[in-house]
Specification:
Distance between the termini: 23 Å
Strand order of the largest sheet: 1-2-3-4-5-6-7
Largest sheet: 7 strands, mixed
Strand content: 25-35%
CATH class: Alpha Beta
CATH topology: Metallo-beta-lactamase, Chain A
Oligomer: single chain
Helix content: 10-25%
Structural class: alpha/beta
Length: 198
């Protein structure tokens, strides 16, 4: 497990032998998890942390593959993602103050329907794959909505999945997304670009 700061650590993303996103551990008075990942080798390590609640960014297998094997009292998902995880609790927005401030926010993403992002201590925003394009590119309308919501979130840094904890200033991320949005063409629903195209 790699440490980012005193309250945030993560189990690394992997591509082999199977694709797995990072699983982020948030330490407050109790331990919380953002995404389960899909790496079977992390199950015992995560379970040894006595996770109280897990938040799921979206329903893709690399983020939820180990959900059934990791023990926690609560699993918070969007309504759409709840279809993929038995026993999950549906939320749109939720704030927890437990020695740390955790704010789960419903997020409009062209990458995956029903995405959630997690703002920790108004300092670090975990977005999962929420800022990546779909295979068709960026949906113009959803990209506009993503930028609009990002501008309302009081935080300093953004961490996207599959970057092994790389932090980017939120103003730089918004600027990059606005630059992508500026490439929209009238009557064309998608913007094809290479940036943030995971």
């Amino acid at each position: 497990m790699k440490r980012i700061n005193e309250y945030l650590s993560f189990f690394e993303a992997k591509e082999e032998p199977i694709l797995s996103a990072e699983a982020y551990v948030i330490k407050g008075n109790r331990n919380y998890l953002f995404d389960f990942g899909n790496d079977i080798s992390n199950i015992d390590k995560i379970n040894s942390l006595n996770i109280y609640a897990a938040f799921v960014s979206h329903f893709h297998l690399d983020h939820i593959g180990q959900a059934k094997n990791i023990k926690c009292e609560h699993i918070y998902t969007s309504k759409f993602t709840s279809k993929y995880i038995e026993g999950s609790e549906i939320i749109d927005n939720l704030e927890i103050n437990d020695g740390i401030k955790i704010e789960a926010i419903s997020f409009p993403s062209g990458h995956a329907k029903g995405s959630l992002v997690l703002n920790i201590n108004n300092e670090i925003l975990l977005v999962g794959d929420g800022l990546y394009a779909s295979k068709d590119g960026y949906n113009v309308s959803l990209l506009y909505d993503s930028i609009r919501v990002l501008k309302t979130i009081n935080t300093k840094y953004v961490i996207m999945s599959h970057t092994n904890g790389e932090m980017n200033k939120i103003e730089n991320v918004i600027s990059d997304l606005e630059n992508i949005y500026s490439k929209k063409e009238k009557g064309v629903p998608y913007i094809k670009v290479n940036d943030y195209g995971n």
